UniProtKB/TrEMBL annotation:
Its EC number is 2.7.7.65. Residues 326-458 form the GGDEF domain. Residues 76-128 form the PAC domain. This is diguanylate cyclase. Its cofactor is Mg(2+). Gene3D superfamilies: 3.30.450.40, 3.30.70.270, PAS domain (3.30.450.20). CDD domains: GGDEF, PAS. One of its GO terms (molecular function) is diguanylate cyclase activity. It comes from Idiomarina zobellii.
Length: 458
């Protein structure tokens, strides 16, 4: 094929719009892509003035550019937005290249135009998806998955969008957006009755616009049950493991099959959902760790009871707020002759006795009362919203519970610990040290009485 013929063929096949305009501003050449874009037949363009082909408003803009190239003899590149009468908007990358004669006079220009609408649309989509997930100043929020689904349902013109987990073969709809189907988050379905099983089988994005004609879908239980004709779904993968599927479906066939752009959009959405879920998992791990650390910081490691910090904080808050207008009782408890238990049987046995005694005390309290290990063999009990009469009965139960505790050693020896208790009721303007001091003074008296008894501060 001669070169001229070949280049002509290539020009006709190019998706890029190419035209040549002479100095009288007439079309001398326009390739197929150019004619198609302006919806004109080639015969209706060639030899016609540009001014007669384009509408007035558009030509007015183009003319300025043309004049510039003809005057300067230099290339002019720019981006242009064209809005058609039907509202369709196109983004064009335009390049005007002058044709110069031997005297460097511009005798025409080549218009080389790229339709970048799809590119701009995808940039726009990326921005929208990014904005939904990373709203400025907002933490990544699982609610943004609802927003993403809603956007997807509208954009794809489908009936339903879901983000579902598939954990141990159980399919659970975690997020759902639909105005047309009766489904809500938390719904569990057999996996083989959802198109997700197709996504899982293929392990990549799948889509169909005619499920009834698609081998992968037509015999599927989901098609037989719900008759969904259009579907697009992509796996959600977290840390290399498939977590679930993001899917969109429509009962009827869509006007057109899913476009490349729509497929890419669903892929991007899948990635966005992965980000949100992964972030959420990291955050709940951190929160769990924080809770665990708080628990450790406030727990006595030997007995599992609240420790001194937790107890004093609780008492302080209680006195400052809810115990203020109602009486509470604080009791300080100390094991009797504990040194001799340690000295006789060793520290480990002493620990065993402390644990058994702590359990006995804890078990004999009401739900509202709290026992705290203040340190060593000293404990405190806070009994809120109570008076001396009621608290006396409870503390007597505590004392007896310890007295009845039996720690039997491997040697056959038996230890029966006892405790002394000093107690006091709260007074107006009490703070932690004043109330604790009174209870401690009462304990001192109990130790100097018979031990294994309760003494109240007056
Ligand atoms: N096994 C064990 N012993 C502890 C712990 N904390 C404190 N002790 C011991 O508890 C004993 C307390 O002794 P003392 O304060 O003399 O009082 P006591 O022997 O109980 O005598 P009274 O309180 O007067 O009845 C000391 O020997 C401490 O070492 C602990 O966590 N484990």
């Amino acid at each position: 094929m001669p070169e001229r013929q070949l280049s002509n063929k290539i020009l006709e096949k190019l998706p890029t719009m190419v035209a040549f305009i002479d100095e009288k501003r007439r079309y001398r050449y326009a390739n197929k892509a150019y004619c198609q874009f302006f919806n004109l037949k080639k015969a209706d363009m060639l030899e016609r003035f540009v001014a007669d082909v384009l509408d007035d408003e558009f030509y007015a803009r183009v003319k300025v550019r043309h004049d510039k190239v003809f005057k300067s003899g230099k290339v002019n590149s720019f981006s242009e937005t064209v809005t058609f009468r039907d509202g369709r908007k196109c983004f064009l990358d335009v390049r005007y290249i002058p044709e110069l004669d031997e005297n460097n006079k511009t005798v025409g220009l080549y218009a080389i135009i790229e339709d970048v609408t799809e590119y701009y649309a995808s940039v726009d989509l990326m921005r929208t998806i990014h904005d939904i997930i990373h709203k400025r100043g907002r933490r990544i929020d699982p609610a943004s998955i609802d927003e993403l689904l809603k956007f997807g349902v509208d954009y794809l013109d489908v009936d339903i969008g879901t983000a579902s987990s598939i954990i141990d073969g159980v399919y659970t709809i975690e997020w759902v957006q639909t105005a047309k189907l009766d489904l809500e988050a938390g719904t569990q379905l057999p996996l083989d009755t959802t198109y997700c099983s197709v996504v899982l089988a293929e392990n990549e994005l799948v889509h169909t616009n005619e499920a009834d004609k698609d081998e992968r879908f037509k015999d599927h239980k989901s098609f037989q049950t719900y008759g969904l004709q259009s579907y697009i779904g992509t796996p959600i993968v977290i840390n290399d493991v498939v977590w679930g599927v993001l899917g969109f479906a429509k009962k009827t066939t869509r006007l057109e099959a899913f476009s490349e752009l729509e497929i890419e959009m669903v892929r991007m959405m899948g990635t966005a959902v992965e980000t949100v879920i992964a972030e959420q998992a990291v955050r709940s791990d951190l929160m769990r760790q924080r809770d665990d650390m708080a628990l450790i910081a406030y727990t006595d490691s030997l007995t599992g009871l609240k420790n001194r910090s937790a107890g004093m904080e609780m008492l302080e808050q209680g006195l400052a707020t809810h115990y203020k207008d109602s009486c509470c009782v604080v009791a300080v408890i100390d094991f009797d002759h504990f040194k001799s238990i340690n000295d006789t049987y060793g520290h480990d046995v002493g620990d065993q006795v402390l644990i058994a005694g702590a359990n006995a005390m804890n078990d004999s309290l009401r739900g509202s009362d709290t026992v705290i290990r203040v340190g060593g063999e000293e404990f405190m009990i806070i009994l809120p919203y109570t008076d001396k009469d009621n608290a006396s009965a409870v503390l007597e139960r505590v004392r007896e519970a310890v007295e009845k505790t039996v720690v039997t050693l491997d040697s056959g020896d038996v230890i029966n610990p006892t405790v002394s208790i000093g107690a006091t009721t709260s007074e107006t303007n009490d703070d932690v040290s004043s109330i604790y001091r009174r209870a401690d003074q009462a304990l001192y008296k109990a130790k100097h009485a018979s031990r294994n008894c309760i003494v109240w501060s007056k």
